Structures are given as structure tokens and as C-alpha cells.
UniProtKB/TrEMBL annotation:
Official protein name in the record: Putative ferredoxin
Annotated keywords: 4Fe-4S, Iron, Iron-sulfur, Metal-binding, Repeat
Domain of life: Bacteria
Domain (4Fe-4S ferredoxin-type) ranges: 50-79, 82-111, 149-178
InterPro entries, A to Z: 4Fe4S_Fe-S-bd (IPR017896), 4Fe4S_Fe_S_CS (IPR017900), Fe-S_Ferredoxin (IPR050572), NapF (IPR004496)
Amino acid sequence: MNKTERYYQEYMSHRHVSRRGLFRAFVTASRNVAPTASSFPPWPLPPGASSATQFLTACTRCGQCADACPMGVIIQREDGYPQLAIEFASCDGCGQCIEACTTDVLQHQAHFDTRLRPSFSTQCTHASRGCRQCATACPVQACAFTESALPVVNNERCNGCGECMIQCDRQAITLAQC
């Protein structure tokens, strides 16, 4: 994934970047995330995408959804298809990508959902206490903690925005398609 100067300019103009987020971006910029082989397609689709088969058939790969995204989280893959890339910014569900889509493969949703869900690794818990940053940052309060201080997600509440992953300074959260 190649981030251009335009991406960072758009990101900075629409979002406050914390020192933690900026440092995390520099540290993880060279990390390549390999797609999983079990999902079809193996990359996250933009919000409002129809079924994967319909999307891949009808998408013209014009790139208008990526151009319209103010957060810069929709990028064009090498094969031209759009991909939801929540690495340095979360998706706020503004719907501008849906408005820009001329083929109607992106449709308005009754409830915003990227169909991504967080998964917590064992790096998440500190020996004496957890940081709880994911629960604090979650705009829909989908992240919570068990009595043993292990993080859990309420899949019905979660909209897959990725804010929990962005705020995690331990890189203990990954997003996977549900």
C-alpha cells in the first residue's frame, strides 16, 4: 500500500492527529499486511458494498470512491479495485464514497457498518493493568473488558470503524472481516 502526499494532506486537514498516532504511523509505515486466503475477496470492501460477487462484477474501478473519501481510508489496489485501508485513520461513515459511486455498487446502509471487527491479541493486556484505550476511544461503546481485564467486543454494537485499532499503542488489535 502506497501512501501519497495527498493522502497525508487530506488526513491532516480532516483529523486531529495525536502524538501517539503520529508516532505509530511512523513506526508501522513499512509494515505490510498480507490478506487472508480464506475470505473472498481477501481485502476489506468500502462501506456499503453489495455482496462480494456483485461488487467485483459491477465495479468499474474508476477510483471515484477513493477520491471522495475525506479520511483517505479507501485506496485503489494495484488491480484497480477499491479497498478499505484502516491503518492510520478510522472510517467515520460519512457516506461520501457512496455518493461518488456511479455504478451503485456502494449503497446507503440503514446502520453504518464496514463489516470489520476487532480481534485482540495477547499483547493487549499489561501484567498489572490494561490500558483500556480501545474502550475509551470506541464511539459506539462496543469494546469492554471482562472481570479478568481481557478485552471483548460486542459484535452487534460494533460498526467496524477501526477507532479502537488506531488508538491502540501496543498494536494488539487487528481488524478482520466478519
